[in-house]
Amino acid sequence: MDKSEKRISSLREPSSVEKPSFWLVLLTLLRQTGVYIVVGLGGALLLLYLFSELTEDLLRNEFASLDDNIELWIHGFANPVFDLVFNFFTTLGGGWGMSILTGVCFLTLLLKRHYYSAIMVILAVGGGLLINFVLKNLFQRPRPDLWESTFARPSSFSFPSGHATLSLCLFGILTWIFFNLLKSRKLMIGLAILLAFCTVMVGLSRVYFGVHYPTDVVGGYLSGGFWLALLVSGDAIFTRMRLPLSRDIIPPLKRPGSPAPKA
Fold first, then answer.
1. Which of 9, 95, 148, 210 is most exposed by smallest CB count within 10 Å?
2. Is residue 138 in a domain?
3. Lowest model confidence (mean pLDDT) among 143-147, 187-191, 215-219, 242-246
């Protein structure tokens, strides 16, 4: 048999390579990403449900007295020292503060060649800003006016708090990035606690200065948390889908002439 006949006969022989079926591949992907789908998307739906319940109660004016009482109680602690502390955090969570922090984080990640993480920062802040803009103009809640504050009241609507929304989106996505990039567990936990503290203080500062109701801040955290949960779960699912398929479900493909795997 010459070479041409051998080539023809080899083409006619069935290949011994085992190709996984579509359903087996789908099952593997679901197994590798299922926990992120359940936890991430389930968490996002829970936050969305809580936000809808909050807005329903606000439309019924059920939190009016509670909002006023909490705001006046917090204002009772006002003093020059607290003024300085909360002014720092409200500036940190404001337009200029968030813009500078976002730009610094974005450029730092680019210089470190963490391009994907840099894009995540922009998506987190940009998406949070868009959601907050839509919700503010949808509900059009007036700002509180319980006392004559020395802090200038913004002209925008009150619900939900933009400071609370954006601080949670930015500091939350940074926590997720640190979780994936940092090798030191102690450093990661320390930074996560610091960022969580800053998020709470930014929201509290808005109530302290009387420019937001407490429910505005809660609504900002819920709406920002919803977007953050979608973003983080999507990132986790996308990352897992790029990994090789699990070998305990789909064994390595056999090559022609290769020995059978040992049991």
1. 148
2. yes
3. 242-246
Task: For residues 224 and 227, give the distance between their C-alpha atoms in angstroms, rounded to a whole number.
Answer: 5
Question: Per the omega criterion (within 30 degrees of 0), is the bond before 160 cis?
Answer: yes
**For residue 112, what is the DSSP state?**
T
In angstroms, the CA 174 to CA 145 distance is: 34
**Domain membership of residue 36 as a residue range:** 26-142+156-241
Q: And the tokens for 201?
A: 């203080």
Handedness of CA 108, 113, 119, 121 (dihedral sign): negative
Strands (E), the chain: none
Q: Is residue 256 part of a domain?
A: no
Q: The pTM is what?
A: 0.77
Place of tokens 């080899």: 10
Structurally, how many domains does the chain consist of? 1
User: In one letter, which amino acid is 218?
Assistant: V
Phi and psi dihedrals of 91, rounded to 5?
A: -70, -40
Q: Could you read off the pLDDT of 5-32 as tens digits, one per residue? A: 554 454 444 444 455 555 554 455 555 5
Would you list the DSSP string of 57-105? HHHTTTTHHHHHHHHHHHHTT--HHHHHHHHHHHHHTSHHHHHHHHHHH
Is residue 14 a part of any domain in this protein?
no
